Amino acid sequence: MASSADQQHRLPTPYCTTSAPPPTPSAQPNHSTSEAADALSRLLHRLPPTLSLSLPSRRSSPPTTITTPPTIYLSDPIPALHTNLLSASQLGFFQLTHHSIPSHLAHSAESESLSLFNLPHDRKQQYFTKNWPLGFDFDDEDDESGSGESFCLDSSCSTESTELNLTSLRKFTLEMEKVGLEVIEALSCAIGFENPVREDPTRVSSLMWISEGSTGNNKPGPVVSGRFYPYVVGLHYQIRCQKYSMLADSGWVCVSPQVDSVLVTLGDIAQVWSNGKLRKVRGRPAPNLGDGNHPHTISMSLLMTLPVDSTVSPLLLPRATGSNKQDEANREDNGDCDNTIEERVLFNSFSFEDYAWRVYHEQIILKDPLARYRV
Asked: Which PANTHER family does the record match to this protein (predicted)?
C-alpha cells in the first residue's frame, strides 16, 4: 500500500480562483441530458473552497423493514465463498464476521475519534490542513439538515500536529484496510473482473472518514452526514447495536448488523469495474437514531477508493463459451483456438477526479451519478 506521503502527493491541492482547475472532459456521453450538470461541474471547479456549493443533507422517513445483512465468512471454502458473494452482490451490502479486527481496537479508535470533535474549532482547522478530499470539513449553516463535522484522513491518519495521539485509530485503519483488500480480491474472483490491486497495490488508496451526525431537535430518522465520495468498497465496524439507513440501487433500506461485524457496502467504482454485475450503495450508511434518545453520533467508515489521477472503466475478463465437438472442429479448421467471447461494455470510461469532485460538491445521492456514463 502506498505511503502517506505518496498518497498526499497524488491528492490535488485546494482549488482557488487564481489556480487552474482540473480539466473537465469536453466530451461525455449523453450530452443532451447532462449539459446542465456539466455546466455546474465547471462552475464548482472554479469556486474557492469557502464558496463551494453544498446541498442540505437529506433526511427521509426511515424504512419500516429492518434487514439483517447477509453474512460472509472470508475463511469459507472458495466455492461457498463465491456463491455467497454472488448472492450478496445483488443487494450491494453484506456483513463480515470472524474477521481479524480486534474489538478493543475499534473501541479505542472510536475514543480517539471522539476526541477530535472536542477540539476547539481553530485547532481542527489548524491540525487538519485542507488537501481535498483530506482534512476537516464542516457545515456552518444554522439549519436542521442534520449535517455536521467530519474528518477525512489518509491510511496513516497523518495530521499537522504532534500533540494528537491517534495510535489506535491508525492501527484500526490499517487493519480495516487489510480486510478491504481481501474483500476486493474475493469479489473479483467471484464476479469475474480483473483485480488491479493484485499486481499493483498503489492502484487503490484508503480514506478513513469520521463523521458527526445530528438529527436536529432529537427528531428520529436516518441522518446523512458528511460528504459523499466514490469508492470501491466501504467498511463500517459495528461497535454496538446500531441501525443504519442507506440508499441501495433497490431503494432505501435499514440494516442492523451484528455487533463486532464489519458492514461492507459495495460502491459505485465496484459497479463499474464489474460492468454492472454488482449492485451498489450510494454514499456511506447513515446512522439511524431511532427514537431520538441519542441525538448525536459519529461514524467511522474506511473507503477503499482510487488515486485522483485514475481512469474508471469496466475491468472485464474473457468469458468462456459453451462448446461442443463441432465447435471445436470449426475453430481448429479456422486456426482459432480461443474459446472466449467478449462481453458488451456497459459503462464508458471517465476521469475519477472529475467524477469525485462533482459527487463530493453536489452531494448527489437521490439521482444515480453513474447514469450519465452508461452506454
From this structure: 2-OXOGLUTARATE (2OG) AND FE(II)-DEPENDENT OXYGENASE SUPERFAMILY PROTEIN (PTHR34945)
What mean pLDDT is reported for the chain? 79
Query: Any residues with CB less than 8 A from the CB of 189 and at least 6 apart, and which?
Result: 78, 82, 195
Average pLDDT over residues 97-113: 94
- Smallest CA-to-CA distance from 49 within 21, 73, 87 is with 21
Judge whether 370 and 330 are in contact, CB under 8 Å: no
Contact assessment for residue 165 and residue 112, using Cβ atoms and an 8 Å cutoff: yes
Query: Comparing C-alpha atoms, which of 308, 213, 229, 260 is closest to residue 71?
Result: 260
Cell 486456426 sits on residue: 335
User: Which cell numbers hold the place of 363?
Assistant: 452531494
Within a 10 A sphere around the Cβ of 8, how many other Cβ atoms?
16
Query: Which DSSP category does 133 fall into?
Result: T
Residues 158/173, Cβ–Cβ less than 8 Å: no
**Lookup result for grid cell 481496537:** 105
By the 10 Å C-beta count (0-12 exposed, 13-18 middle, 19+ buried), 64 is classed as: exposed
**Domains of the chain with bracketed CATH:** 65-322+341-373 (2.60.120.330)
How far apart are the two ends of the chain, measured CA to CA in Å?
33
C-alpha grid cell, residue 198: 493484485
Q: How many CA atoms lie within 13 A of 117 on its CB side?
A: 17
- 283 φ, ψ to 5°? 75, -165
State the CB neighbour count (10 A cutoff) for residue 174: 16
* Nearest to 302, CA basis, from 189, 200, 182: 182
Specify the pLDDT at position 40. 57
Contact yes or no for 179/235 (Cβ under 8 A): yes
**338-360: per-residue pLDDT in tens?**
556 788 999 999 999 999 999 99
The letter for the amino acid at 165 is N
* Model confidence pLDDT, tens digit, residues 123-176: 999 999 889 999 998 866 544 444 578 999 999 999 998 889 999 999 999 999
- The mean per-residue pLDDT over the stretch 230-246 comes to 93
In DSSP terms, 351 is beta-bridged to: 311
User: Rg (Cα) of the chain, in Å, rounded?
Assistant: 21
**Phi and psi (nearest 5°) for 329?**
-65, -40
Using left for φ > 0, alpha for ψ between -120 and 50, and beta otherwise, residue 116 falls in alpha
